[in-house]
Amino acid sequence: MGIPHLTRHLLPYAKDVLLAGEKQREGDDSIQLVVIDGPSLVYHVFQRLLSNSNTKLEVLDAQPTCDEVSLGVMVYLLQLKLLGVKVTKICFDGALPITKRKIRLCRLEKSRKKLEQFHLQNRLGFAKPDDSIRSTVDPTKVLQSRVIPIRYNGLPENPFMVSTVFEDLRKRWNKANILMAVQDAFYFNHCEIGEQDFPWAAITVMVPGEADAECARMSRLTGAAVLTNDSDLLLHDLGSYGSVLFLDSVELSEWDPSRPTDSKVKARRLCPASLSRRLGIRSVRYFAYELSQNPQFGLSELIRRSRENCDFLDLAPDYQHFLEDYDYEPNSRAIAQHPQDLDPRISEIFLQFLRFGYMGEAVSWADVHLCAQIHAVLYSLRILKQLLGLVTVTEEPVLRLKSEIAALPPLHVMMRPRREMTREYPEDSSVEKALQRFFLLSGQHVQSDDEMQPPYFSPEGSALQHQGSPKSNCVKHVHRSKSNLYEILSPE
């Protein structure tokens, strides 16, 4: 979330740079390598699309859809690619650690208040949507700033847009879909997209915890600039050359849809290492801590205190606690092992299941909550199944969906008591074994007995490498596809 007012105090020291693969004008500094804070980019694109919404739209219809936000992010990344800017990694938050519980609750409360205020302002509801108003997404909508119309201020963000973008970057935006989506917006040589069919799939990753730490690690290792709106990135160790580009400062100019590679994209860059030298302090961290403790002080006083108190702060427990969030460094092996096809919230349930999802001598509330979450998800699918059964629809996506959920078990099976679920697992059966079984049987592929390890964890805690195994000549077994979750997890 960042420290309040940190960006406002430090942005005057930022330097204007061009986002370009090579220097375009004499005297201009160019940024050729970036790592992107995924959630920050998604929220930024949402705000820019909202600022471009047609003011004739009802407030509810002005909210950019998940599809529009995903398209906007794709267009943003495509324009960077056309300008020769290399994106090394796009990082998304995974399961947040327990230490982030307070921050999570603050975010939830902020969202709740926003929804409450939105409801109070629209007590009478909304008019019927106007289907005649169409919106398009092009680089000017996501790379040029504009003030959000007053009537759209306070409009809640779409809660599913981050998960949508993460999924689409990995599985939707291939060359064919990209060209189809932007064919009427701007024109370019198809070869400029690159050789990979999915240009961003391999670099879009979900990391354990928040994305900040991995963005910082990549910046420190490669010297890449971090594209983000989160001022916390200034407090991580970015090395001598790592820097932060604030998304709100990114601005497109000289745009011509027939020549997108001739456009200019400027941004404002802050390098914590050089900024510290300029302010005459050891580290920006001292300044940030003083600001967090004394938000009423001005810039000069904060700089003075940062210089004079640094030796004292190095020994202060409160300051050491303050640094904990910024000293955390994700393990590259842990990132490789982290499930990459789960939504962030489902990722949290997954890790919660690994930690607490068993029936031992005692049942904690973590078990109860997890069971309730599973029941809620299954019942939601049941609601969808019944509602689809009431309508006559011939569209292929709906028919496919009806087919997928047709095998849901009856309600008495869905809502089994815990004593029945407990009997299904012997006392020596761990959650990890259950997950091994789940991934093995749901994959509809052939594996040897010696390869029945889960795809994320080995007994030694290292990533598994099945390729080229000397045990590949073992007798293999074919497992039939299971029709639902209960068949998958139940013993033979």
Give an overview in words.
Strands 1, 2, 3, 4, 5, 6, 7, 8 and 9 form a 9-stranded mixed sheet that branches. This protein has a two-stranded antiparallel sheet with strand order 10-11. It has helices spanning about 5-10, 40-50, 60, 65-80, 100-120, 140-145, 160-170, 175-180, 210-220, 270-280, 285-295, 300-310, 310-315, 315-325, 330-335, 345-355, 365-390, 395-405, 410-415, 420-425, 430-440, 485-490, and strands at about 15-20, 30, 35, 85-95, 205, 225-230, 245, 250-255, 265-270, 445-450, 475. The chain is α/β, with parallel strands linked by helices and about 500 residues long. It has 22 helices and 11 strands. Helix 2 packs across helix 4, helix 4 packs across helix 7 and helix 11 (about 285-295) packs across helix 12 (about 300-310). The protein is globular and about 70 Å long. It has 3 domains: about 5-280 and about 315-325, 3-Layer(aba) Sandwich (Rossmann fold), CATH 3.40.50.1010; about 360-420, no CATH class; about 425-490, no CATH class. InterPro entries: Asteroid (IPR026832), Asteroid_dom (IPR039436), PIN-like_dom_sf (IPR029060).
For the terminal residues, how far apart are their CA atoms? 48 Å
Number of helices: 22
> What value does the Rg take, in angstroms?
25 Å
CATH homologous superfamily grouping of the largest domain = 5'-nuclease
Helix/strand structural class? alpha/beta
Strand content: 5-15%
The second-level CATH architecture of the largest domain is: 3-Layer(aba) Sandwich
CATH class of the largest domain: Alpha Beta
CATH topology category name of the largest domain: Rossmann fold
Bin the helical content. Answer: 40-55%
Q: Main β-sheet: number of strands, strand sense, barrel status?
A: 9 strands, mixed
Unreliable parts: 441-492
